[in-house]
Amino acid sequence: METPWEYRYANRTKRMGSSVIRELLKLTEQPDIISFAGGLPAPEVFPVKKFQEACNIVLETMGAQALQYSTTEGYRPLREMIARHTARYSVNVDPDNILITSGSQQALDFIGRVFINQGDHIVVESPTYLGAIQAWNAYGAQYISVPSDEHGMIVDELEKALRIGPKFIYVLPNFQNPTGTTLALERRKQLVELADRYGVPIIEDDPYGQLRYEGEHLPSVVMLDSQHQGNNGHTYSGNVIYMSTFSKLLAPGLRLAWVIAPKEVIRKLVQSKQAADLHTATFNQVVAYEVGKGGFLDEHVKVIRATYKERRDVMLEMMAEVFPSEVRWTHPEGGMFLWGILPEGMDAAEVLKRAIEYKVAFVPGGPFHPNGGGENTMRINFSYSNPEVIREGITRLGNVLKELIVKK
Amino acid sequence: METPWEYRYANRTKRMGSSVIRELLKLTEQPDIISFAGGLPAPEVFPVKKFQEACNIVLETMGAQALQYSTTEGYRPLREMIARHTARYSVNVDPDNILITSGSQQALDFIGRVFINQGDHIVVESPTYLGAIQAWNAYGAQYISVPSDEHGMIVDELEKALRIGPKFIYVLPNFQNPTGTTLALERRKQLVELADRYGVPIIEDDPYGQLRYEGEHLPSVVMLDSQHQGNNGHTYSGNVIYMSTFSKLLAPGLRLAWVIAPKEVIRKLVQSKQAADLHTATFNQVVAYEVGKGGFLDEHVKVIRATYKERRDVMLEMMAEVFPSEVRWTHPEGGMFLWGILPEGMDAAEVLKRAIEYKVAFVPGGPFHPNGGGENTMRINFSYSNPEVIREGITRLGNVLKELIVKK
Fold first, then answer.
1. What is the pLDDT of residue A90?
2. pLDDT digits (tens, 9 = 90+) for B202-256
3. Does the beta-carbon distance from A51 to B38 stay under 8 Å?
4. Which of B2, B126, B343, B365 would disulfide-bridge B374, Cβ 3.0–4.6 Å?
């Protein structure tokens, strides 16, 4: 029987599902399971000592300010630091182009709040980031899926999608979650040109851009758009909203991320944030600035890169060794995930059930496809587990796959 | 001319105004202005040393966990601490009745998200908390104002409002923001009974409940509802959603608050939070637990009470001395605000403009009335400024009022 509370829920509440990923993660939280399911950074690389120093300095020198209410836009020195960092990649932004958010998920939510009317179409790569779909489902978005391959979104298929009149295009160009693939340079340029031609904005989600383990850094979409718009020397006011985060560079438990956008868009996002949570925790922003201000991040990211590169390499090596030849997978140049592709007709959710019996876990790829498909795909995280655990986990997963593929 | 971005905004974006309070606060941020406008705790009472100790302990003993992603519901030991605290006031809740939010503003937002359809009616006290109006305007709420007097909402007027079929009733029973008044015990009982009779839920917002400077603590609405429902000994599953916050007990810069609700409602709020920001900062929750766990809060709240009581007393005394006899004001038994009432026909916004020239500020009361009115009222904060500053500020404000009232 329904309870009186259920009769009071808003229509949008009926669209809410519990996060598929979260529910799966619950299954895999048993301590004896080797989980490649989460998207967790390695706790070994958290700069705990540096944090401790920063907390002490902040509380000793500016405790009252760090614990008080602060502005919705975010702590100005932190925004200035981000602006300087962004300028290194040839995009001219100033602090008023930047909003600090409580994690990237909040930036996705605010973008939905500001832009999406019930029934609006959003162009996404297929597969795409599940957190974005969750955020935007709450606003009644529909999705136009553009297929992708090992070089990211197949931009030749984009024009068809743009003619439908979407609200915006959402891309994760670097080491995409879930596939680990990177959007090729030529495709980035083509994307910027097409979006400009059709007047459709781009949301560039870039949580992992700094975490490259091989190959050359590629210019961001916002940078290419800045060039395309002839914005040389001027503050950015183009066609792209760019997002990134401290979750992968420092620690996700701080919930600190940022959005870069034309100032008028930032003003609307700020109004969303006033209504949503007033401002991001002052203390966290001040501490993150204290940690980051002396060039520490540049040094620290080298440690993260070395750690994750080793883990990726071990995982790729083990997969080549133990996975049946029918299984394929991506070779990510950075980030935290790779993508496994099972033989057509196999169901990764069924594989997961069996894998949990073998005490190993991953995320089935189906839910990353907003319009269905991808049942034979799987997202596998390589950042969280150490090399030894990766060897054991991939061995177990190899055994599951051999068993199920032979059975077929 | 409108820019291309403006044509992309969702309909709800057009309803967004920048926060009236925030815009006013900007005016009053000049350092030589004595501001009674904000709702800021006194930084002198932030337990900075205790925080520093807690940060050090947390980072030394559980740094990796404190900096990692965590569950949407919130840090379990913190929820257990809140459950124990709540049980002292005779409401049986367990951790699954509790969601940790990034400040109370986020709890208000999630309540809007879960319950409010465009055009739904919400019963509010008039005047009521501006942050709630801001949060719920984003969901297209309309308001039914119930008038209030020095004992809070005039509950005799409530039944008329309930017959309109509102989604819920929103009340701040203790030392209300903005008026500083407290809902009388008999009215609380009447409210609970009426709400139950009409099947309309109550949102009880209680940021200041612990900050009482005189008189007896009154039972919360959720506690009276628990009794009314005959919930003795059972986990709470009644008609009230209760909200409170660490912003006033510890420090607002942590952005930590909580919601207590029947478990099924918590599940819906958790789904909102998954889409909105995944979870509240782990570090802040773990540190707040470390600060609070040994009974520190009970001791610390005594310090806050003593500090704010003195400030309230100084302000009341000064007002009696220097305000023209045409002006009236409330006598709050706790909290952070009092409410000034100017002669009918006077416009507090005009008074503010003149006051800023005299280098003193407050918030005009008009915006706290969602259906208009109250132009002759003003919210005055007494928690932030020290007694000396309060004396000087009220003297200045008295001079402004004398000047303007004589002129009339």
1. 83
2. 999 999 999 999 999 999 999 999 999 887 778 888 999 999 999 999 999 999 9
3. no
4. B365
Spatial neighbors of B272 by CB under 8 A, at least 6 apart, are A16, A138, B110, B113, B114
Please give the single-letter amino acid code of residue B386.
N
DSSP, collapsed to helix, strand or coil, labels residue B378 as strand
Q: Please, how many CA atoms are within 13 Å of residue B79, restricted to the half-sphere of its CB?
A: 21
- Could you give the CA distance from residue A256 to residue A264 in angstroms, rounded to a whole number? 22
Residues A70-99 have a mean pLDDT of: 94
Judged by DSSP in three states, A212 sits in strand
Q: Taking CB atoms and an 8 Å cutoff, what residues of chain B touch A121?
A: none
| pLDDT of residue B1 exceeding 50 | no
The pLDDT score that the predictor gives to residue A23 is 65
Where along chain A do its domains lie?
4-47+298-407, 69-294
- Interface test with chain B among A2, A6, A7, A8, by most B beta carbons within 10 Å: A8
* Closest to A262 in 3D by CA, of A225, A299, A294: A225
For helices A221-228 and A185-198, the axis angle rounded to 10 degrees is: 50
Considering only CA atoms, which of B220, B200, B203, B116 is closest in space to residue B160? B200
Give the range among A26-35, B14-23, B50-59 with minimum mean pLDDT: B14-23
Q: A interface mutation test: which of B23, B277, B282, B384 has the most A CBs within 10 A?
A: B277
**pLDDT at residue A89, rounded to an integer:** 83
Taking an 8 Å cut-off on Cβ atoms, the answer to whether A283 and B4 are in contact is no
CB contact under 8 A, A117 and B38: no
Specify the pTM: 0.96
B63 → chain A, closest CA residue: A48
CATH topology of domain B4-47+298-407: Aspartate Aminotransferase, domain 1 (3.90.1150)
> How far is Cα B367 from Cα A391, in angstroms, rounded to an integer?
62
Average pLDDT over all residues of chain B = 94
Q: Nearest CA to CA, how far is B67 from chain A (Å)?
A: 4
Residue of A nearest to B240 (CA): A5
Average pLDDT, chain A: 94
Backbone angles phi, psi at B93, to 5 degrees: -130, 155
Backbone torsion region of residue B143, taken as left when φ is above 0, otherwise alpha when ψ lies between -120 and 50, otherwise beta: beta
pLDDT of residue B43: 94
* Chain A residue with the nearest C-alpha to that of B284: A254
Does the bond joining B324 to the residue before it have cis omega, within 30 degrees of 0?
Answer: no
pLDDT band, very low/low/confident/very high, at A82 (cuts 50, 70, 90):
very high
Statement: residue A27 has pLDDT above 90: no
Nearest-CB residue to B69 (from A106, A253, A270): A253
**In this complex, do A67 and B46 lie within 8 Å of one another by their Cβ atoms?**
yes
For domain B68-296, give the fold.
Answer: Aspartate Aminotransferase; domain 2 (3.40.640)
Record the tokens describing residue B76, joined without a space.
């379990």
In the predicted structure, residue A145 carries a pLDDT above the cut 90: yes
Query: For residues A127 and A133, what is the distance between their CA atoms, to the nearest angstrom?
Result: 11
Task: Please answer whether residues A91 and A226 qualify as being in contact, where contact means their C-beta atoms are separated by less than 8 angstroms.
Answer: yes
The H or E element spanning position B112 is: helix B104-115
CB pairs under 8 A between A and B: 251
The pLDDT > 90 percentage for chain A reads 88
CATH topology of domain A69-294: Aspartate Aminotransferase; domain 2 (3.40.640)
